[in-house]
Amino acid sequence: MSSRTDAIAEAEGEPKPGRGADQPDPKSPPPLQLGGFLPHRLNVLSSLVSQALTRVYSAHGIGIPEWRVLVSLGQFGVMTGKAIGARTHMHKTKVSRAVAELERRKFLTRRVNRADLREAFLSLTPAGRAVYDELAPRALEFTQRLSEVVAPADRAAFDRAMTALTERSAKLVEEMELSQGPGDDRMEP
Fold it and tell me: What is the extent of the structural domain holding 46?
């Protein structure tokens, strides 16, 4: 099976061929079934969408973090790395590495913030803007092709559900961070 087929089968709760996994007792189904577990299903969807979208921008030799930085600057013009991290939910280390790579390739420029020397204002160079202008329509076409499987009558509800899940996830992260002490990575029951 291809990795795409394996990912879909696994998302639906089917074991990969040749795994030899123990079969659960049919009289007592397991309390958690991965194929129906919403976080897993969202992760599989995200992974498959990312793999497909990578085909749009990989010709320019950029990866997911660089893509997110490039699009953020294409949309907002001038931003700090911290602002990009907050908007894209990327860790500051990933943002920093992506910025360094895009700067090395002359797709973005950095201007020091004189009020805070630890911070820099980032913006696209003409070469970076050209890449953004070339890729944005292709990314929008990809989005159209992806979303056409959702019936037009269901798209507003789907969008509301995505927004609600995103907001709820952010709130859960915040609640968990507040309930844990410094350096405590365990989740509260």
Answer: 1-14+33-60
